[in-house]
Structure formats: structure tokens, C-alpha cells
């Protein structure tokens, strides 16, 4: 699988570049998410978390948590605790301010951490979620293996990620928006030239659909599913340890 980095010509690792990129856009990230998706991202998160409603997980891990939007949505499940992990301290600081303002400091905890080297013991979590973050793993299978390791037997993994629409004319409209409109407004508002050029490139090279399901199965996840949302613009993947 091709490794797509925010700056392909840089000698820095993808992990380091992703951390620096999200640090630089952290203050505008939430606004850009909602603005560039026209607010649809909120409904996508609700649908992703609804995959866990029958499980009623007490302890949830939210990988690549960013500013904690998916962790906040997970509160609808009434868990004992949600632990969010992210590489970017800038994003985490924004998330911590949101948590404090909402009075949820005792329920959501955010920590800086690496998806490929989690500090948790085996069989710790009842569920794990990742929202728009698996594309940013430097080593996809290593990150997925770590998530598998820290999940309890029977725990569920839910991934929300951009995918590539296949039907006409959605595919054509999507490509135009993702490759032209989104990078322009993303650069203009975030003041980061690479961040919103990296986004469509990372989606383009991400193994979506059945290709991603194969990665989950190879790691050991069972009962895997894939569900396309909004004409295939986004997908929800699930697997059980």
C-alpha cells in the first residue's frame, strides 16, 4: 500500500508530519469539519456510534480522537468512561477545553499516544472507535493489531472513514469537490497548504470497502461488516474480536 504523507517530498515520517499538520490546524479543525462536510459529519458520527448501542460498552477507546467529537457522541451510550488517544497535542488541547466546558471531565479523558504502540494492557476495552483516522496510521496493520490487542474478547471495533463513491454522477461530483473545492477552502481557512491537499490524496490511496475488510479479517476480527453512507462518500466498518 502506498504511504501518503502530507508532504511527500519531506524526509520526515508520516507520523511526524501528521502530528505537525494537525497541531497547525487544530484551532480551525472543528469549524472546517462541519463547514466542508456541510454538517453531514454529525449524522455520520451518530450512525457510527449506533453500531455499539446493543453492546452497551462500559469502557470505550477512541483512537485518533482529534478534538473528541466521536468521543462526545459515544456519551449517548452512557459508558463509564471514554478514553481518547491522538498524536496531536494541539487537537487534544482543543478537545480538553470542550470537555471542561461541557462538564464531562470525569467521563472523557484525552491522552497523547501512538496507535502503533498503545500503553494499555491486553483485553482492556469493551469497544474501540476510530473516526476519520485510520488513513493517518503510518502502518495500518500495526495500528489495527494494537487495537485488536487491547480489546476484550467479544468487544466491537467501529471505523468511520471516507470512501470512494462508485456510482455516476456522485463519483464525478465527489472527485471535483474533493480535488478542487475542498483543498481551496481548506487552505484558505486553515492557512495550511498541505493539510487539505493531503486529505483527498489519503482517501484516494486508502484501501476502502472490501479491501479494508480484508485487513480487518487478516488481523483476526470476525463478523466484519461494511456499510456505505451518503452514496458511498463515507463508510462504517465493524468487526468483533
Structure write-up:
There is one protein chain. With 241 residues, this protein is an alpha/beta fold. It is 44% helix and 21% strand. It is built from eight helices and seven strands; from the N terminus they run ααβαβαββαβαααββ. It has helices at 14-36, 40-50, 69-74, 89-102, 140-150, 170-190, 195-205, 210-219; strands at residues 59-63, 81-86, 108-112, 125-131, 151-162, 222-229, 234-240. A seven-stranded mixed β-sheet has the order 3-2-1-4-5-7-6, sandwiched between helices. The mean pLDDT is 91.
Write the layout of secondary structure elements.
Elements (H helix, E strand, L loop, with lengths): L13 H23 L3 H11 L8 E5 L5 H6 L6 E6 L2 H14 L5 E5 L12 E7 L8 H11 E12 L7 H21 L4 H11 L4 H10 L2 E8 L4 E7 L1
Parallel strand pairs: 1-2, 1-4, 2-3, 4-5
Antiparallel strand pairs: 5-7, 6-7
Quick synopsis:
The chain is an alpha/beta fold.
The CATH homologous superfamily is termed Vaccinia Virus protein VP39
CATH class: Alpha Beta
Which stretches are low in confidence, meaning pLDDT under 50 for 5 or more residues running?
Answer: none
Main sheet summary: 7 strands, mixed
Radius of gyration: 17 Å
Question: Strand portion, in percent?
Answer: 15-25%
Q: Quote the distance from N terminus to C terminus.
A: 24 Å
* Global geometry: globular
Amino acid at each position: 500500500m502506498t504511504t501518503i504523507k502530507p508532504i511527500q517530498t519531506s524526509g520526515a515520517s508520516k507520523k511526524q508530519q501528521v502530528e505537525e499538520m494537525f497541531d497547525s490546524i487544530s484551532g480551525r479543525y472543528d469549524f472546517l469539519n462541519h463547514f466542508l462536510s456541510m454538517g453531514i459529519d454529525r449524522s455520520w458520527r451518530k450512525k457510527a456510534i449506533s453500531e455499539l448501542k446493543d453492546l452497551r460498552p462500559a469502557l470505550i477507546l477512541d483512537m485518533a480522537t482529534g478534538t473528541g467529537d466521536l468521543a462526545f457522541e459515544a456519551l449517548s451510550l452512557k459508558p463509564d468512561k471514554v478514553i481518547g488517544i491522538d498524536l496531536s497535542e494541539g487537537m487534544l488541547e482543543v478537545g480538553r477545553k470542550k470537555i471542561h466546558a461541557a462538564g464531562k471531565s470525569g467521563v472523557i479523558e484525552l491522552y497523547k499516544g501512538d496507535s502503533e504502540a498503545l500503553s494499555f494492557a491486553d483485553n482492556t476495552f469493551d469497544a474501540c472507535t476510530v473516526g476519520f483516522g485510520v488513513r493517518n496510521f503510518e502502518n495500518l496493520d500495526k495500528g489495527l493489531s494494537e487495537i485488536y490487542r487491547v480489546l476484550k474478547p467479544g468487544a466491537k471495533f467501529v471505523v468511520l472513514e471516507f470512501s470512494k463513491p462508485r456510482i455516476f454522477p456522485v463519483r464525478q461530483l465527489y472527485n471535483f469537490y474533493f480535488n478542487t473545492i475542498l483543498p481551496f477552502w481548506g487552505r484558505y481557512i486553515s492557512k495550511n497548504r498541505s493539510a487539505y491537499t493531503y486529505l483527498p490524496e489519503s482517501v484516494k490511496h486508502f484501501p476502502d470497502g472490501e479491501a479494508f475488510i480484508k485487513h480487518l479479517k487478516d488481523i483476526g476480527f470476525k463478523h466484519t461488516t461494511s456499510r456505505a453512507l451518503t452514496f458511498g462518500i463515507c463508510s462504517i466498518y465493524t468487526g468483533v474480536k
